[in-house]
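In the design runs reported in the main text, the only information available to the sequence generator was the tokenized backbone. The following block is the verbatim input for one such run; it is reproduced so that readers can re-run the procedure and compare outputs position by position.
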């Protein structure tokens, strides 16, 4: 019967197998180097450094994901604002509809002509 490997050795084996989910579940992010950790796994004298490197990579990846999510939310908000500005205002009963440009021009000429005759 073999004894279970010490936690840091188990964590490194999981990291080396690229099983980060299992390493996280086993406590990778809680790992703090202790004297003697580098001697736990023959052939891996850099055990502590590799586990700390995996922790740093995960922290960077999580920070990048958070920045991406914030950017996505910011862009979605800007798009919604832009669409709101583009949308015509909802018609209300107290507002009269605007005249088409050609009708407004005819009305303006008629008003000017009428104003010229009365003076």
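Verbatim output:
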């Amino acid at each position: 019967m073999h004894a279970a490997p010490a936690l840091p050795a188990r964590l490194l084996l999981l990291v080396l197998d690229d099983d980060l989910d299992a390493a996280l579940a086993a406590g990778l992010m809680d790992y703090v180097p202790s004297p003697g950790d580098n001697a736990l796994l023959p052939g891996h004298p850099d055990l502590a450094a590799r586990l700390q490197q995996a922790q740093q990579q995960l922290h960077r990846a999580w920070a990048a994901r958070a920045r991406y999510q914030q950017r996505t939310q910011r862009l979605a908000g800007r798009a919604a604002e832009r669409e709101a500005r583009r949308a015509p205002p909802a018609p209300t009963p107290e507002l009269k509809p605007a005249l088409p440009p050609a009708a407004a021009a005819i009305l303006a000429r008629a008003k000017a002509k009428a104003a010229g005759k009365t003076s």
